[in-house]
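Minutes, project check-in
Item: structure for the 80-residue chain
Input as provided by the requester:
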Amino acid sequence: MDAIKRIKKDLDLFAKNIKEIESIKVHDEEEKIVQMAKNYRDDTKYYLKQEDYLTSFGCITYAHGLLDAVRLLHDLIVEE
């Protein structure tokens, strides 16, 4: 899978996960983390347009990590 397809796939997954987060009640501090994740998602799109795929991929990976932290706190991710 090439870099562009991988980044776009991760953006789609982020969109799915952010909808899940938006359907629950998060605390103020968690909302800050969610907003940071959204900012990194926006950075992902910016760097993708700049054809800086390495930075774009790094941004979406970080965005997922932040979002997953909140998802874990709310039992939206089942640890195996």
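Outcome recorded: The mean pLDDT is 94.
No further action items on this chain.
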